[in-house]
## 1
Amino acid sequence: VLLQSAVVDSALSAFRSICGEDGVSLAAAVREQHGKDESVHRCRPPDVVVFPRCVEEVSAIAKVCHKYDFPIIPFGTGTGLEGGVGAVKGGVCFSLRNMDQVLDLHQEDFDVTVEPGVTRMALNAYLRDTGLWFPVDPGADASLCGMAATSASGTNAVRYGTMRENVLNLEVVLADGTIVHTAGKGRRPRKTSAGYNLTNLFVGSEGTLGIITKTTLRLYGVPESMVSAICSFPSVQAAVDSTVQILQSGVPIARIEFLDDVMIDACNRFSSLSYPVTPTLFLEFHGSERSLEEQVNTAEDITQSNGGSDFMWARDPETRNKLWKARHDAWYAAQALRPGCKAYSTDVCVPLSQLPQIIMETKEDLIENRLTGPIAGHVGDGNFHCLMVVDPDDPEELHSVHLFTERLARRALAMDGTCTGEHGVGLGKRALLREELGQTSIQVMQGLKDTLDPKNLMNPEKVLQLRRV
Amino acid sequence: MSGRVLVGVKRVIDYAVKIRVKPDNSGIVTDGVKHSMNPFCEIAIEEAVKLKEKKLIKEVVAVSCGPQQSQETIRTALAMGADRGIHVEVTGKDYETLGPLQVSKIMAALAKKEDAQLIILGKQAIDDDCNQTGQMTAALLDWPQGTFASEVALEGDKVKVVREIDGGLETIKINTPAVVTADLRLNTPRYATLPNIMKAKKKKIANMKPADLGVDLTSRLEVLRVDEPPQRQAGVKVETVDDLDSLMNNWTVFHKCTQRTSLCVVLIPLLETVTPEDMRKEEC
C-alpha cells in the first residue's frame, strides 16, 4: 500500500508525464478490473493502473517504481487461472493492452514478433492470408506475452508443443527499468547454443522476474486438412493404452482429449447429445489428404484392439464441430451441473503410464468427499483437469475443494509428476512448488530472483514464497 | 452454359486496423497500413470454390480493380481455390475516385468478355459500405440479382437464393446468368494453406486497363471532407426522478441496470450513436 502522500503525488505526476493524463488511472472500477483474473482468488486491486504505449514508457515507469519501492504487476488480458495478477501488496499495475502491434513477420522463416496487447486469436486473424498460424491454444483468447509469462499450453501441445518450445526471443523490462533482449536484439534463429537460456528463464516466470514487452514466436503451416474422431472405451485404462499406442505408432496426432464418464454425462445433458456414458477420447488429425487416411486407419485399429467402440470420424467442418461439441462445451456443461456455482479447474500432469491410476484414485476421492468434479484431459501429455463445480458462498465446500486439490497435487507429485501442467503457480501453489522442486532447486530459483529483482518488486507473493529480507 | 463464375475481390484496409483520418481531412491514412481482402469478398470466393468442388461450375475467375498491390488480393483468392485472376489496373487519381459505378461497368464488360454464367460479389466493402456494386452490375447487364445471400443453390439453369432481409429470410429463384452478393452467414471462408499459396504462384493473372474494356472511369462524386466520429462524452448518472425530469427535454433516456434496490439511469447525449458495447461499458 502506498503510504506517504508526498511520495505518492510525486510518483503519480511522474507516471502522468510519462504515459499522459489518460494513461494513469486511480478509478476504483479500473483498479478492480486489474486486480483479478479468471481464478477463484478474490480481487486484490492495485493502487494505480498505468497504460504504457511503448517499451520506453514501461522502462521509465519501472524506474519510478524502483525508486519508490512500489510493487510492479504486469497485466495482459487478465485471463489467468492462478491469481497471478492479484496485487497482494498493492502497487502499480502495468496494463499492457495499448502495446498491440504485430511487428516483424517473416513468412519464409516462420517467425513473428508481437507486443503484449496482441492476443492469440488476433495474431491468427492477422496471419490468415499467409498460410501460417500460431497453434498454442489455451482456452481463453489470451495475450501472447502473457502466455509466455505463464508458459501456457493448449489442446494441441501433443503435436505443436507449449510456449516453452515456441518462444524464440523476448524483450523484457526488469524491475529497475533495464531493457533486456533474452536472445539478443532482433535475433530469431530457429536454434541456438549461445549462452544461458535466458529466454526460457523468463518463460513461465509469471511476472516475477520482469515485464515481457515483446515475444518472438515460432509459427507453423496451417494444416492442409483436418479430420476429427471420437471413440468410447470400457475403461480409463483402455483409453490411455490407446493413447500411448497411437503415439508409439508414430501417428503425428494433433489433439487427443479425454473426457470421463461424469463429464460425458454432463455434456449429454447440456447439449442434448447421446454419447455412451463411458470414458471417451476425442481425436484430431492434421495433414495432407493422403496422410490423414493413413493416420485415421492406424488410430482406429489401435482403439479397436483396446476395446474401443463407436469410432466415428468426420472431415468437413460442420460434422467435425458436431463430433467435438461435447469437448468444446465441457466447461459450460460442468457448470450447468449445478447452476449458480462457479467452476474451478485443477491442473496436474503425470507421466502417461501413471494416468489411469491417478484418475482412478482421484475419482474415488471425489466420490468419497461428495464433490462434483468431471474430468477433462490432454491425455497425450498426461495432463488432466478436474472441473470442480463449487458453491462460492459455502465456505465449507470451498475448503473441502481446496483440500481435495492439495491431495490431488500431492498424488501427482508422488507419481513423478507436477502440481501444475499449464496454469502456473500463481498465488495458490507456492507451497506445492516447494514440495515439487525440493529445497535445493527452490534455493537456486530464489537466488535468480534475488539477482534480477533484489527489492522483490516484481509481482510479489507469486511463484516463490516471500523470504524475509 | 460456360460454367464460369466471376468473383470480384477488393483490397481494403484490414478489419482489425484502427482507422486514422489524415490531418487535412481529405481521406484516411493508407500508407504503411495493413491491407487484406474485403471479408465479404472472402465469403464470395469461398462460395464459388465450393460450387466448383461440388462440380456444379467449371472455373472460378477472381477479378480485382486497383493498383499493383491488388495482385496480392488476387493471389489470396487463387490460394483459396480460384483458377485464374484478372487484374484491371487502376492507379492514382482514378483509383482514389474508383467506386461502385466504375467497378460495376468493369464487371459488366468482363462478364460479357468471359461469357460468365454467374457473378458473385461481396454484399459491400468494409471501407465504403456502399452495397451498390452487385446491384449496379446486374442492372447494367440486365441480369437478375440475388443479394444478401445466406444460401445459394444451383438448380439447372436457375439459382435459388435465400436472402437475409429485415423481416427474416426471403427465398427467390432467378434465372442464370445472374449476380449474387454474399452476406455474412453464407459460409465460413477457408484459410489459405502454404501448399495452396505455393500452387497459386503458378496460376495466371491477366493484366488489363479499363480502356481495354471500353470503360470510362470518370467519377460523378467528389469527396469534400472526411471526419472522425465525435469523441465519446461521459454519461451522467442521475439519482432521483426529479433530476431526470429536468434533463428530459434535451436528452435521450436509456433505462439501465435495475439492481434489486435502486434504479440507476444513465443519460447519453442525443448526438451519440450508442452501441451495445457502449451500454455494457456503462453498466453500474
## 2
Amino acid sequence: PRLSSNEKLMLASMFHSLFAIGSQLSPEPGSSGIEMLETDTFKLHCFQTLTGIKFVVLADPRQAGIDSLLRKIYEIYSDFALKNPFYSLEMPIRCELFDQNLKLALEVAEKAGPFGPGP
Amino acid sequence: MSSELFTLTYGALVTQLCKDYENDEDVNKQLDKMGYNIGVRLIEDFLARSNVGRCHDFRETADVIAKVAFKMYLGITPSITNWSPAGDEFSLILENNPLVDFVELPDNHSSLIYSNLLCGVLRGALEMVQMAVDVKFVQDTLKGDSVTEIRMKFIRRIEDNLPVGEE
C-alpha cells in the first residue's frame, strides 16, 4: 500500500526522533542507531550516512539485499539529486532522473527476491 | 572528460567573476562561496563512492583528503607536511594544480587567489561531516612560489546536527 506524501513526512519525522532516542538508549556506546525495525507486515531499514542523512526503506520482511539497495540509493542520491544544481538541499526531491533511476534500482532489488541478489 | 575543458571552464568562470566584481577580494569571496556549495554536495558523492568510514582524528582526515579525495577528483596526490605541534593544522603541498594549467596571473590581479574554489570545497565538505575548518592558500605557483601550499586548520567539531549515535 502506497503511503501519501503526508504520511511519508510523518513517518520520517517520527522515525528521526525514534532513531535519536534509540541511539541514546542503546546499551552499547557509540551505537549506530536503528538499522532495522521488524514488524509482522513489513521491515523498515535505515542507513545513516556520515553527514547525517538517513535513507529509509520499507520492505517485505522476507526481502533480502536491502543493505546493498540502501547503498545504491545513496549513490543515486549523490548523482541525480545532488548533481542537479536546481535541487536545493533538504527540500523534497522532485528530480525526474532521480525517480527513474530509483525505480530501476528498486526493480533490480525486487527481482532478486528473498534469496538476495546474484553474484 | 578532458582536463583541458576543465581548465578552460574554470578559467572562464574566474574571468567572468573578475568582470562582474571589480576587485580581487570580492572574486576570492565568490570563489570560496561557490566552492562551499560544491563541497557540501561533493562530500556525499565522495562518501557514497569511496566507502571510507568516519575518521578518528585530524591526521586520518588529512590522509583521506590527500590520498583518496584529491586523487579521485583531481587525479593528484598532494603531500601532507608541516603539522602543528598540537596536531590541528597541516599543509597540503601540490606539485601541480590542474586548475592552473597554462594560467598566468596578470599584474593587475595580484591579490586574486585563483584556485580559491578549492578552499571552499574543502571547507564545505568537511562541514558536512561535522568539522569546522579554516582553509587557505599560503603558497601559489601562480604568484611565483615553487609549490602550491594549502594550509588546513581544524577549528572545532560541529556538535549541533551530529548524526545521532556518533560520539
